[in-house]
Hints:
The structure holds 2 protein chains of 2 kinds.
Chain A: H1 4-7, H2 16-26, E1 39-40, H3 50-59, H4 61-64, H5 75-80, H6 88-101, E2 113-116, H7 118-130, E3 136-141, H8 147-153, E4 158-163, H9 174-186, E5 191-197, H10 209-222, E6 225-229, H11 245-249, H12 252-255, E7 264-269, E8 282-286, H13 289-298, H14 306-317, H15 319-346, E9 350-351, E10 359-363, H16 373-387, E11 389-390, E12 392-393, E13 404-408, H17 414-463
Chain B: H1 6-9, H2 18-28, E1 41-42, H3 53-61, H4 63-66, E2 69-70, E3 73-74, H5 76-81, H6 89-102, E4 114-117, H7 119-131, E5 137-141, H8 148-153, E6 159-163, H9 175-187, E7 192-198, H10 210-223, E8 226-230, H11 246-252, E9 264-269, E10 282-286, H12 289-298, H13 306-317, H14 319-346, E11 350-351, E12 359-363, H15 373-385, E13 389-390, E14 392-393, E15 404-408, H16 414-468
Parallel strand pairs in B: 1-13, 5-6, 5-7, 7-8, 8-9
Antiparallel strand pairs in B: 2-3, 4-10, 9-10, 11-12, 12-15, 14-15
Helix pairs in contact in B: 6-13, 7-12, 14-16
GO molecular function (chain A): 1-aminocyclopropane-1-carboxylate synthase activity; pyridoxal phosphate binding; transaminase activity
Protein name (chain A): 1-aminocyclopropane-1-carboxylate synthase
Cofactor (chain A): pyridoxal 5'-phosphate
Amino acid sequence: MLSSKASSNSHGQDSLYFLGWQVYEKNPFHEVENPSGIIQMGLAENQLSFDLVESWLRKNPDAMGLKNKDGESVFRDLALFQDYHGMPAFKNELVEYMAKIRGNKVKFDPNNLVLAAGATSANETLIFCLADPGDAILLPTPSYAGFDRDLKWRTGVEIVPIHCSSSNGFRISMFALEEAYERAQKLNLKVKGVLITNPSNPLGTTMTKDELQSLITFAIDKDIHLISDEVFSGTVFDSPCFISIMEAAMDSNLKRNTDVLSRIHIVYSLSKDLGLPGFRVGMIYSNNQTVVSAATKMSSFGLVSSQTQYLLSYMLANKKFTSNYMKRNQKRLKKRKEMLVSGLKKSGINCLKSNAGLFCWVDMRHLLCSNTFEAETDLWKKILCEVGLNISPGSSFHCSQPGWFRVCFANMNQSTLQVALRRIKDFVERSRFNYQQNMASLSRKLIGNWVRKLSSADSEEQER
Amino acid sequence: MGLLSRKVTCNSHGQDSSYFLGWQEYEKNPYHEVNNPQGIIQMGLAENQLSFDLPESWLAKNADAAGFKRDGQSIFKELALFQDYHGLPAFKKALVDFMAEIRGNKVTFDPNHIVLTAGATSANETLMFCLAEQGDAFLLPRPYYPGFDRDLKWRTGVEIVPIQCTSSNHFQITAPALEEAYQQAQRKNLRVKGVLVTNPSNPLGTTMRRDELDLLINFITDKEIHLISDEIYSGTVFSSPGFVSIMEVLKDRCLEQTPVWERVHIVYSLSKDLGLPGFRVGAIYSNDPIVVAAATKMSSFGLVSSQTQYLLSAMLSDKKFTKEYMAKNHKRLQKQQSKLVSGLAKAGIGCLESNAGLFCWVDMRHLLSSNTFEAEMELWKRIVYDVNLNISPGSSFHCSEPGWFRVCFANISEETLKLAMQRLKSFVDSVAINNQSHQELKNSRKKFRTKWVFRLSFQSFHDREQDER
Lengths: 464, 469
């Protein structure tokens, strides 16, 4: 009766990533009203810098009231504006903002920018443009859980993971790339591209120029596309600074290959840096005119509200605001991340060294009772239900090694983070105590058995 | 270079049709009362521009709704973070109430059954993804909105099989036509998953009668398929007969507990009635909880901006505003439509009698040089380039009879409409004069030839007479 898409679970939303949210929804932490509730640490949102945006809004009521700088209503123009090429003023501001995030080391052409209703829409649209059903995209793991829905569900495209491990900080090695490619071939899947998230979700790390250039070389070599999801590019708060795929591609050695730019596509969004996921602003940037043209038509299925385009074009046009925002936001993110890292360290828990993102990639392997994903799920359940923290287990990011968790830090205030850290500390101590108790009782048991064995051997001898 | 997908390299987005080409021509030379009075008048755009003053003045009196405030308190943070694909509860409630109001409160809708999407474009595509596989088919009465070729088929891989409707019965859907379309799909080895109708119709501007709706329900019950009722123009019904929603008919026939209840789905949008296409507000309404669940997840690909949801929830919750808006909007639409109809009549052009929509379905068959689509194209080109009116040819709506055109009236002012009618009249008059003189020329040539032949034969007769003497 219904399509297989509607009746299957290929939307991927039965994963633990989403289940954790559901449990949280039933018992959410509130400092005053529900202080023993579950603290949400599974939501990669930036809630640290609203005050900056809010203060700008207070000073610019016309932007919200759909009036222009002369105080005249532009309601009618906006109400009618549904051109899938997007509002020119908005695109101009966006490309400048994107360039600013990249230290102005690259420039973007607004004509190569296609707006979409969030990066969710942008990613799916790009896949529709680059691949046919049954084709494959290579994706380094661990990767964002939502990709199972965004890249595969309605497109019919497969994901073949590039396995990355803690042995080299989860970096993408050429070996892993080739291995993934071969695996796809063995499965009779035509590889159409590689999709990376840079900065990475869930790792919180940025890629080096060498890594990027290796990827570009790989893409040229295999004659495939390279999608760089850079939604977290504005959240880089520490060195090394952010290097965009575009910057890496501009390198003179690679530039000689004239079509290199036509196979590189960037996805961006205002949901992470500016903390505006509700406004649904995403985009595709491509130098490939065929892709731009097709993606533009496809954006009909997810245009950005003109009301929102107008407000944000106004806001981003204020360069003083954007400079101030970027600086202060990054400072706050850094401070909050450091608080999480040091707090976890006090509990004997380490994180992958990171310089970006709204989360840390946390190593809890030593807390597993066995090096298995079952043990990881057990630990996750304990932390969710007993400790009252919704953190995201590595398996929901398709991590190949059990024991890693993504823990978000930017979606709560400082005191809530402190509560969370205290709870973890208590949990770890309890676990250690229990472990010691268990160990002690186990030792006692073992010694008891040994003693019993010895004494029975004695008595046997005596009886002979 | 890595190959792109087939979706990109083919042209199944359907945007090469004349419907869109006409727009492009208009863009190059758009009419402006002052700056370009000779330019092309856009009559191919089904937009409602007659009632902006009403929401604009509401906005001026309710700055908080646009200013992210509730009871004077800022809720910016809450809205900026709100990306729940279940939609803003207050907005969904206001929307279902508005939908019920449009239907004279003869049906009520449950906000838990509504899924918000970025426009009806997104809603229609999403429903296809939920109800059909690649290669399945949906039956659609023709003429139909050209955008459906993109919205229903492009990325979904679903096929459209048209249901033949003709002017002989005002393009209404008949049982034989439905059956024939179904058989045609079968012959092509296509599995039919449902029927999609637009009610009120684009491009006809008519509402479906109860017996048509009954017919559809019987058909889908018999074939065990779905029915999608695209009711985006439901708020533009300006004269009798009133709008009868498919839900009303299902209710009247007490079909709520039967399987067919869950196979009927409605698509709605605020782009046409409220004239807000830029805000991207569409919705799917379904009684099937599985469809609602799947469509809700799919709506991730086209959520409505929370900023917009909040503004419109406030506006639509203002019952005084919605009542006033609907009454005034209907009146203005009716007035403008009758101006178009009478203007066309003065030019000797008739339209299909209509009671809804933002356009008329205009009969220009008598202006064709021949009863062919080539002739229709010729006429269309003349009207675009010589008369400078962008109207939409019936072929772009897949009409099976040449000579029909969709002409929009709600996106231009009364003065512009008047000018358009003047231009049309001049054109028709000149065609008549040309035809007349052409005919006269033809007649005189005929007369001359006859005289000459007569003279000849008389001559020969005379000659023969002479011979025979």
